[in-house]
Amino acid sequence: MADIHVLVTIWEFNTELTESRLPDDYRFSAFAQNRLMCIAAMLEQANAHWSTHQQRINSNPFNPHDFKALPLSPDYQLCVAPEYLFAKSGVHPFLSEEEKETIRATSSWIAKSHPSAILIPGTTLWKKSMIRPDSRVNQRGTQQPKAGAKTRDFSKYQGVNARTFEPIKREFYARDMATGRNQRDATLQDWTQNPANGQQHIARNSAFICWGQNVKTQHKRYENVNYGDGKLLELAPDVDWTNIVFMPGEKPPLTTVHNMNIGLEICAEHALSTLGYLDMSDNHFQVITSASVTVDQKMGVAVKAGGFIVHADSREAAVYYVNSEINCIRRQEDFSFAVMELGRQAGIARSYLCTVDV
Question: How does pLDDT run across 2-11, given as a tens digit for each residue?
Answer without folding.
Answer: 899 999 999 9
